[in-house]
């Protein structure tokens, strides 16, 4: 793309901005009586318009521009033709850095097509683990089932991972709550769940959490619903249950 | 010709992939276990055989001010056990003193 073309694009994007600027200057040059009346509200509106543009859509900016058009009258139409010709100079005056343009573009894109812009940036959220003490030597992980369902993983798999990582064991009570041997804070369980997500939920290719865990021939596969990639993941048994003698004796 | 073949060989498209083979062979696992009450135990498993575990243990015990011993397991080989949660310190020591690459160390637990 040539320089001139690039500038054209820029001026098209900021056409309304440039026109407004020019309009103002033209009025000043004509030096009509209504100039003072018109220019002062224009100045205020200009400021407002800039503010709006940052957080709100193009349409609101366009509305503001339309209002101005009406206020300024018919000679505006005649100006529009000349606006594009002169806009090259105008765009030179406006100091728009690349990052400004980029953030503007993504702002608009996020608004109109959020699935194109924001999908990857959105954080994957799970409900915080509810962990309470159960006596002096056990912990109660109440919403393990809910969290597993949220991650679309069998709760047995999650529990197996928890036990392997924490180097402990436990059981499930009648209300499908998990009783863990040892004392654990919610924050600690959260950290383990986080590493579980990194290992068994997040797609290693595109980082999407929209994945499924499938078992084939004793191997676990992570199938991504977002990008379609399939990866093997290490089974917890061989990868993590390799525990040291002391614990093995306890487990056996 | 042979040079270009060599070039082809050196490019491994799966170098960044976590192969299960590499996992079982190379990783040093640092784990934590809870003992009675607030007491914990740190275990270091999978250190390469060329290291003298006894000497390492001696240094670790002195550096961290904790007790420890070497547990022998038929499957896992020799495992260093240390009192308390020494996981971060052990991993730092392995990287700085033993030149073990950080990515081959896996810290488990919370
Ligand atoms: Zn993916």
TrEMBL record, chain A:
Per the UniProt record, the source organism is Nadsonia fulvescens var. elongata DSM 6958
Give yes or no: UniProt keyword Protein biosynthesis.
yes
Q: Which domain of life is it from?
A: Eukaryota
Task: Spell out the protein name for this chain.
Answer: Translation initiation factor IF2/IF5 domain-containing protein
Q: Where is the Translation initiation factor IF2/IF5 domain?
A: 121-230
- The keyword Acetylation is assigned to this record: no
Q: What's any GO biological process attached to this entry?
A: formation of translation preinitiation complex
Q: Name one GO cellular component term.
A: eukaryotic translation initiation factor 2 complex
One Gene Ontology MF term: translation initiation factor activity
Region entry Disordered: which residue ranges?
18-70
- Family recorded in the similarity comment: Belongs to the eIF-2-beta/eIF-5 family.
Name the UniProt key words of this record, in alphabetical order.
Initiation factor, Protein biosynthesis
UniProtKB/TrEMBL annotation, chain B:
In the UniProt record, does the keyword Cell division occur?
no
What the entry lists under Gene3D superfamilies is as follows: SUI1-like domain
Q: Which GO terms describe its biological process?
A: regulation of translation
Question: Locate the SUI1 domain: which residues?
Answer: 28-98
* UniProt entry keywords in alphabetical sequence: Initiation factor, Protein biosynthesis, Translation regulation
Membrane-spanning ranges: none
Q: Which InterPro entries match?
A: SUI1, SUI1_dom_sf, SUI1_euk
Q: Name one GO molecular function term.
A: translation initiation factor activity
* Function of the protein: Additional factor that functions in concert with eIF-2 and the initiator tRNA in directing the ribosome to the proper start site of translation.
Entry's family note: Belongs to the SUI1 family.
What this protein is called in its record is Translation initiation factor SU
């Amino acid at each position: 793309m040539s320089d001139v073309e690039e500038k054209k694009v820029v001026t098209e994007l900021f056409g309304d901005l440039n026109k407004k600027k020019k309009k103002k200057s033209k009025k000043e040059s004509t030096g009509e009586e209504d100039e003072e009346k018109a220019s002062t509200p224009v100045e205020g509106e200009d400021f407002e318009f800039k503010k709006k543009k940052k957080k709100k859509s193009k349409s609101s900016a366009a509305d503001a521009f339309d209002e101005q058009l009406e206020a300024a009258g018919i000679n505006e139409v005649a100006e529009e033709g000349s606006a594009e010709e002169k806009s090259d100079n105008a765009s030179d005056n406006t100091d728009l850095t690349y990052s400004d343009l980029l953030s503007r573009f993504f702002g608009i894109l996020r608004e109109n097509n959020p699935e194109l812009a924001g999908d990857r940036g959105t954080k994957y959220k799970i409900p915080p683990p509810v962990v309470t003490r159960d006596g002096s030597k056990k912990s109660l992980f109440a919403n393990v089932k809910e969290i597993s369902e949220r991650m679309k993983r069998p709760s047995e798999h999650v529990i197996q991972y928890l036990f392997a990582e924490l180097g402990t064991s436990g059981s499930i009570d009648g209300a499908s709550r998990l009783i863990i041997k040892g004392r654990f804070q919610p924050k600690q369980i959260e950290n383990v769940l986080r590493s579980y997500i990194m290992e068994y939920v997040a797609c290693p290719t595109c980082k999407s959490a929209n994945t499924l865990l499938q078992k084939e021939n004793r191997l676990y596969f992570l199938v991504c619903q977002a990008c379609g990639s399939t990866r093997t993941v290490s089974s917890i048994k061989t990868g993590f249950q390799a525990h040291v003698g002391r614990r093995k004796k306890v487990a056996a | 010709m042979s040079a270009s073949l060599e070039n082809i060989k050196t490019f491994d498209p799966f170098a960044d992939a976590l192969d299960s083979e590499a996992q079982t062979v190379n990783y040093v696992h640092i784990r934590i276990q809870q003992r009675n009450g607030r007491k914990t135990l740190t275990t270091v498993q999978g250190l390469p055989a060329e290291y003298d575990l006894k000497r390492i243990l001696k240094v670790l015990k002195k550096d961290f001010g904790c007790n420890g011993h070497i547990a022998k397991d038929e499957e896992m080989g020799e495992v260093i056990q240390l009192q308390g949660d020494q996981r971060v310190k052990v991993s730092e020591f392995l990287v700085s003193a033993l030149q073990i690459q950080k990515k081959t160390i896996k810290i488990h637990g919370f």
